[in-house]
Amino acid sequence: MSEQPKTGQLTFVAPRRAKPQRHLADLTMAERRAAVAELGEKPFRADQLSRHYFTRLTGSPEQMTDLPGALRERLVEQLMPPLLTSVREITCDGGMTRKTLWKLFDGSLVESVLMRYSDRVTMCVSSQAGCGMNCPFCATGQAGLTRNMSTAEIVEQVVAGARALAGGEVPGGPGRVTNVVFMGMGEPMANYKAVIGAVRRLVDPAPEGLGISARGVTVSTVGLVPAIGKLADEGLPVTLAVSLHAPDDELRDTLVPINTRWKVAEVLDAAWKYAAKTKRRVSIEYALIKDINDQEWRADLLGRLLKGKLVHVNLIPLNPTPGSKWTASRPEDERAFVRRLESHGVAVTVRDTRGREIDGACGQLAAAPQ
Ligand code: SAH
């Protein structure tokens, strides 16, 4: 495990650690065919395997009846190693919200959260074990960065959710994952390559990938400006969310330490370029913290920065985290903040934050074994 970072300390580069075994979900279809050929088998076996994994959501050899018995075992061993082991599952909202604690091959712990709504199912996934961005109000940030996750480790969280839904394990009848948000543990833009690989596997049509609409995928970032630029060039219409939390550099320097590298103006500039290129509305995430960032003058300042842009503000009532001295804003301050933003014509909603009672809400994922 990593050491607790000092105040404001940023960790961009994940410690070097052993990598998880290669998995089908790490590879493009062409790479899968090559991998199968390397094992001395016909490339079309890769298509069969992909159908089992991405369409039928199965990883067990017994169910792969279109493959000869011995070959199944070998291909699964080589290309579908178990990457995630469920350590604990907690549910709330009558089973409609469910948080899973996963153990990775090297003992690292991460969490994902499935949230079922009347019209959609959202999977909130982790992209790193821990996080190096050190935001003082976020439980994940307090533990530091353990390591980057691989593409397949990220995808597996979604596949596990899809499997549970397809199997009718989640109340409300069989269903499927419609939305994926990279809002679990970690800073997705600090693990860019693996995250983009995962996004591609999610949106590629089955059986190459899961066939989830790119519009249903959201990548959230503290504001790594060069990576936002790269994401804009990928040609993927995924939603970008920027965790802003303050409209002024003085406060943002302390709430979101990455701001000491890239200032509010630079982050927003990158966001507007992203919106222009993808035609997608950018989400601005803003956790309302009592007497810290919830003053009307800050709402006004934020409104002036966002006015007329392709943007939507998500206000998140601050969720409690261990050892934090901060709490959520008073209801009247929250209302005033919303009104001020609206007076600038800025679209704003207060997030119906799920899973607070199971420490599964925004900023609460700590992957504690107990
Ligand atoms: N590192 C990325 C992905 C994590 S998303 C990012 O920060 O964008 C998790 C979201 O929850 C972020 O917007 C984060 O700032 C917010 N958050 C963190 N701690 C929180 C808390 N205690 N209450 C409410 N929101 C919080």
TrEMBL record:
GO terms for biological process: rRNA base methylation; tRNA methylation. Residues 117-357 form the Radical SAM core domain. Its EC number is 2.1.1.192. It comes from Microbispora catharanthi. Its main location: cytoplasm. SMART domains: Elp3 (SM00729). PANTHER family: 23S RRNA METHYLTRANSFERASE, RADICAL SAM CORE DOMAIN-CONTAINING PROTEIN. Specifically methylates position 2 of adenine 2503 in 23S rRNA and position 2 of adenine 37 in tRNAs. The active site is at residues 111, 362. This is Probable dual-specificity RNA methyltransferase RlmN. Keywords: 4Fe-4S, Cytoplasm, Disulfide bond, Iron, Iron-sulfur, Metal-binding, Methyltransferase, rRNA processing, S-adenosyl-L-methionine, Transferase, tRNA processing. It catalyses: adenosine(2503) in 23S rRNA + 2 reduced [2Fe-2S]-[ferredoxin] + 2 S-adenosyl-L-methionine = 2-methyladenosine(2503) in 23S rRNA + 5'-deoxyadenosine + L-methionine + 2 oxidized [2Fe-2S]-[ferredoxin] + S-adenosyl-L-homocysteine; adenosine(37) in tRNA + 2 reduced [2Fe-2S]-[ferredoxin] + 2 S-adenosyl-L-methionine = 2-methyladenosine(37) in tRNA + 5'-deoxyadenosine + L-methionine + 2 oxidized [2Fe-2S]-[ferredoxin] + S-adenosyl-L-homocysteine.
